[in-house]
Amino acid sequence: xxxxxxxxxxxxxxxxxxxxxxxxxxxxxxxxxxxxxxxxxxxxxxxxxxxxxxxxxxxxxxxxxxxxxxxxxxxxxxxxxxxxxxxxxxxxxxxxxxxxxxxxxxxxxxxxxxxxxxxxxxxxxxxxxxxxxxxxxxxxxxxxxxxxxxxxxxxxxxxxxxxxxxxxxxxxxxxxxxxxxxxxxxxxxxxxxxxxxxxxxxxxxxxxxxxxxxxxxxxxxxxxxxxxxxxxxxxxxxxxxxxxxxxxxxxxxxxxxxxxxxxxxxxxxxxxxxxxxxxxxxxxxxxxxxxxxxxxxxxxxxxxxxxxxxxxxxxxxxxxxxxxxxxxxxxxxxxxxxxxxxxxxxxxxxxxxxxxxxxxxxxxxxxxxxxxxxxxxxxxxxxxxxxxxxxxxxxxxxx
Length: 399
What we know:
Number of strands: 13
CATH architecture of the largest domain: 3-Layer(aba) Sandwich
Order of helices and strands: HEHEHEHEHEHEHEHEHEHEHHHHEEE
Strand content: 15-25%
Mean pLDDT: 91
Shape: globular
Structural class: alpha/beta
Largest sheet: 4 strands, parallel
Number of helices: 14
CATH superfamily of the largest domain: Response regulator
Number of domains: 2
Helix content: 40-55%
Strand order of the largest sheet: 7-6-8-9
Distance between the termini: 85 Å
Low-confidence stretches: 13-28
């Protein structure tokens, strides 16, 4: 009898220990960056330097998405929180910032990754960590070729941003017989635009009279524009950012060049439109996001005014929409995992994402393809220099 009592007591002790161990194991089973009440995200953005207008806007969009999600109760009982690191648009700083987020801050996922060159500098770390990552600020073909299982890109590659407006010039503006030229930044961003330009030239049998690279940060484009004039260019694609586009247009006007112009996605930025306005050119702007003057853009700005600080709201532009959508897409991956949130699950759910609607801010988001890239349709806008606005020429169209 004594031996039976001893056995029962021993069993109770062992079973109790096993039960406590199971509880501890269960509490420790949550993935890095996930607690019972919170999921921690991280972003590397250019919040200082020449490209700060990109990063600050992207961060504002991310903050807005998180504020809306948390105000609605979070995701399955957990709130989102994000840590934002500034890389100053310098690839080496991008790498150190990412290491901090992963190694020190222990973030669950990455929802912002700076520019194209910066993303590629960070890629080995992302691949090694197998951390779910959303790329939205600067979509580049090199991000998804080859395919990285934990990396998802929102937006068509920059080459599409050059191809679409040139096709529009040919098919809708009777520029088939024009002499085409391109100025492009001599880096991954510019080379992707050049590839799209060359694809259109080849497909439509266009006459390309000038393909001119320039270094990032160039301010004087007099020699490049003179080359375009000497070569007789009448339709020009500007593979540039905001200040460069304005400088080129000013020089084109000084030389009295009557040309059809297009910029890339960043041409829709209010600052880009305002500083280019004195040239008077009504240039084309391709984009896969709504403008500030579309109903969806107006509605998002109203929400931003409610949830963001005055300083954050002042940074609102297309990259705010980019950051907002990128965070909403990542959140949807988390939401579909239910209570058991792991990196593996979120990657699997993002891999299945199909026709995710974002309220007219862009076309539907689908990542269920071989590249894990949302190839949203493009809308063509036209800059209106007198009013400092843009008007839509097309709906979102797949070219």
